Structure formats: structure tokens, C-alpha cells
Amino acid sequence: MRLPGGRDGRDPERAIKRGPSRVPRELVLATQRDRLYDGLVRTVAEHGYANATVTDICRAAGVTRPAFYEHFDGKEGAFLAAYTHGTDLLLDVLDQAYAAHAGGWRSAVWENLEILLEVLAGAPAFAAMAIVEIEAAGPAARRRRVELLHRFRRFFAEAPEPPGPVDRAELIDTVIGGVYSAIYQRISAGRAVALPELKPVLAYFVTAPFGLADAQPPRLGSGPRPKVVLPCLPLFLAADQHSETDVNSDG
């Protein structure tokens, strides 16, 4: 799976083709926006949100400043757009895996945690931008993060009732927050690639409050789960990508 930041925005293969055959404007805009997502994520991950500038983002994306302002009203708007795009991709994959799972809630939790940690470990720039640097991106970004965390509540709809007199909704939010905190600590320490190591402890942490504490993965099927793959480009862009040749004058 590729999230924003997974490709070099200045890769010549991603540039808009020049020549007598005119490229549709919607393709130009979509390509620019996709490259700006990658440029922003990489710039923010490397320099931090506070130190990243629009000029830096445009340079990393291979897109002009006028083109940047066709898409976004500033750095904060671009950050929010990239964050929303990337987290929507991630949640879509988790939703699909959860809906397709037939092994019970505990098994579904294990698989979704495995996918979440695997995807973030494979996209360390996006992980740093979306999990750590969002703290510096302002109140709107932090509200967007709260909205994201609330979206994870859907994965607890089939969880057993917790033993003991506790408020179920508050317990679920506490568990989600704890998982997020553990992931944050690993990424902020520069160890995003080691996130999959957290799977046993996080699976235990998530299931224990619901009476299913177990640090051993469920034994289902005869082989490993295949890797999750999701194109980072819209399908119509992926189909046309082979015809792109130029890079730096997309304004």
C-alpha cells in the first residue's frame, strides 16, 4: 500500500507530457495534486511542520508556487488535504479487511492491527507527518485527528461486552487512544519501521478489556496473509502515467 510521501514528487516519470497532443486539464491538476501530497509529506517529515515552507514543498513536488495555490490556500490547507487523503486510504483498507473477515472479532483485531502497523512501517514519512507532526499543524489538524480516532470506533461494534461495571463507549475510546499513543512513541523515536514489533502487546491491550486477553495470534488458514497493496494514484492517472515525460514547469 502506498500513502502520500511514498514516491518522489520530482520523479521524471510523473511529469506532464509536453507536445502537440494536449493533456486534459483534469489530468494535469490531479497529477500536480498527487505530487504535492508527496512533496508535502516528505518535506514535513524531514524538516518538521513548523520549518517546512511552501517553497520547500513545491521544490520537493516539482510543481510551481502558482500551481500550488491553485490547489491550496496555504501550507495548513495542503497539510490537511494530504492528511485526509492518506488517512482515508488507510481506513478504506482497514474497513475492507474487517468486513471480509470471517474468523470472529478477536481474529479481525489481530489482522487489522497487523495491516495498520505494516502499512505505517512501510510509509515512515507519512507516519511521521500524520502521527507526530500533526501536533504542530494547528487546532484544525488536531480536530481532524480526533475525527480520525473516532472512526476507529466502528471496529469495536462486535466486541464482547467488557467484564465489570465500566462505560463501554469510554472504554473503547481509551483503548483507541492507548494504541495511538504507543504508535506515536515508536514513530517519534524514529522507529517507524519497527512498528510491527508492537503487534502482540497491542493485540493484548485491545482484547484484554473485553475478556479475550491473549498475546498469541489466532491460527486461521494455512498460509500467511497476503500483503495489502493499494495504488497511490487514482486509476485514470495510473493508466496514463506511462506517457508523462517532463517535470518542473507544471504552472
Task: Annotate the secondary structure layout.
Elements: H1 25-47, H2 54-61, H3 65-71, H4 75-100, H5 105-121, H6 124-132, H7 139-151, H8 168-188, H9 199-207, H10 235-240
Helix pairs in contact: 1-2, 1-4, 1-6, 4-5, 4-7, 5-9, 6-8
GO molecular function: DNA-binding transcription factor activity; transcription cis-regulatory region binding
Domain HTH tetR-type: 30-90
DNA-binding region: 53-72
Structure write-up:
This protein is mostly helical and 251 residues long. It has a single domain, classed as Tetracycline Repressor, domain 2. 55% of the residues lie in helices and 0% in strands. It is built from 10 helices and no strands. The chain has helices spanning 25-47, 54-61, 65-71, 75-100, 105-121, 124-132, 139-151, 168-188, 199-207, 235-240. Helix 5 runs antiparallel to helix 9. The model is unreliable at 229-251 (pLDDT under 50).
